Amino acid sequence: MSEKGKLIVISGPSGAGKSTVVRQAMQGRNDICFSTSVTTRQPRPGEVDGKDYFFITDEKFREMVEQDALLEHAEYVAHSYGTPRAFVKQQMDAGMNVILDIEVQGARQVREKMPGAVMIFIIPPDLETLRRRLIGRGTDSAETIEARLVRARQEYAEADFYDYIIVNDDLDQAAAEFAAIIQAEHCRYEERSHWLKKI
Fold first, then answer.
1. pLDDT, tens only, 128-145
2. Which domains, from first to last, does the chain contain?
3. Is 185 helix (H, G, I), strand (E, B) or coil?
4. Number of Cβ within a 10 Å radius of residue 168
5. Where are the strands (E) in 85-137, listed by range?
6. Which one in 13, 86, 178, 181 has a CA-CA gap of 20 to 30 Å to 162?
7. How many CB atoms lie within 10 A of CB 121?
């Protein structure tokens, strides 16, 4: 009997290294995938429908919201984004652990709709490190960086419903902790109690 996958929600401030931690933890594993979101924006050059995003119309998006077909949704720069419930369920039923990288507000929506989701908050060791990482990326203005730091403090204050916190000070350690959390979640009593009935 193959185990059902887990929905793993990751959040944390921009610059915390969430994607890097997950990518490192995914190396050599074929049981982890990222969720694919729906969006109402147009595809950018090179983006593939069904891989990068599911590109849909505003009307279809409204329909999905009304039918409760999205685990979470939000608007960002005049376009709508959301996590399709059916896609996540299909992947989990196939034994995949599905990673959902979203902000705290979206994570709260997911927790309400899927209480069994594993919530992981990934942070840098301190805000000064975060500032250095954001500057090092070279993609944001000084004003944007300050705004991201303010937002990080807000997210920290709102993150009281997460199950785990990973401090990304050392990448190898952080990735190992991420992998260990997934492993531990699959070893929970309710996940494996059926084995006790085989005696």
1. 999 999 999 888 899 989
2. 7-198 (3.40.50.300)
3. helix
4. 24
5. 97-101, 118-123
6. 86
7. 24
Note the pTM of the prediction, 2 decimals: 0.89
Contact assessment for residue 16 and residue 122, using Cβ atoms and an 8 Å cutoff: yes
Q: Can you tell me the mean pLDDT for 79-92? A: 95
78, 40 in Cβ contact below 8 A? no
Element (H, E) at 128: helix 127-137
pLDDT of residue 1 exceeding 50: no
N-terminal to C-terminal alpha carbon distance within the chain: 16
**Among 115, 118, 120, 133, which Cα is nearest to 169's?**
133
Edge-to-edge, what's the strand order for the sheet holding 38-39?
54-55, 38-39, 79-84, 70-76
Whole-angstrom distance, CA of residue 119 vs CA of residue 164: 6
Predicted confidence at residue 2, as pLDDT, reads 64
Residue 41 gets which letter from DSSP?
Answer: S
- The CA R_g of the chain, rounded to the nearest whole Å, is 18
